[in-house]
Amino acid sequence: MNIDIRSARAGASVALAAAAIFGGASAATAETAFTVNGVDVDSSVVDMYLESRIQRPADQATDEERAVVVQELTDIYLLTTQPAAEKLAEDVRIKAQIELQGRAVLAQAVAADYFATNPASEEEILAAYEEQMSSAPAQQYKARHILVTTQAAATDLIKQLEEGADFAELAKEHSTGPTGPNGGDLGWFSPDQMVGPFSEAVKVLDDGAFTTAPVQTQFGWHVILREESRDNQPPTLESVRDALKQRVEQTKFTAYLETLRTEYNSNN
Fold this sequence. Notes:
Layout: H1 5-21, E1 32-36, E2 39-42, H2 43-54, H3 63-80, H4 83-88, H5 92-117, H6 122-134, E3 139-148, H7 151-162, H8 167-174, E4 185-189, H9 196-204, E5 209-210, E6 215-217, E7 220-231, H10 237-266
Antiparallel strand pairs: 1-2, 3-4, 3-7, 5-7, 6-7
């Protein structure tokens, strides 16, 4: 189970809209918007269903949008207040669906409440940033590559390079990768952005040197030219703050959920 803030909020909206189908939701502050076959439809149900349909706050809805939603809800309540509905509501599979949707609403609401009441602190964000920086590669590389489907083809390209062929021109002519038309140019990258064998090959090259043996990855066979290298330029804290905040909060929630699992397992 992996719930984040956005999924918790979105899930609550969708599931509460579904709640209208299965008899409506009530709240202490809700008012009756309209009645269908003796069943009061709360204004909160109307607003929740409206927001799920127009994907913005209910108070921003136009009169036309609200009218359409009221008609849709009326139809839903007309169908679910028919005699057949009472019988169908006892069907095992339908009861299971209602139970699951209700539990999903509540689970998402509990998750959203946890995120809201346990925000990442500045200290936690800073610690996550420092951890990320400590594990960041020391260098970045600028490279080109030629990707082919066989080892023999890669070996032949290396031979041509050793004889003085231009790397970029060979890439344009032979590379099957998306960078082929650009002469195999990969731009600047950190080793952790590439698959292992590729990164390892780049790291042991000197600037201006190409691989003297084909490098195999899951994509095929590579001939690699390392053009330049430089010290890694880590992102600023502010540029990654939002991502780190989400990561910290997700980690805290995962730990909370694991605690619940442990307590449950120890009691059963």
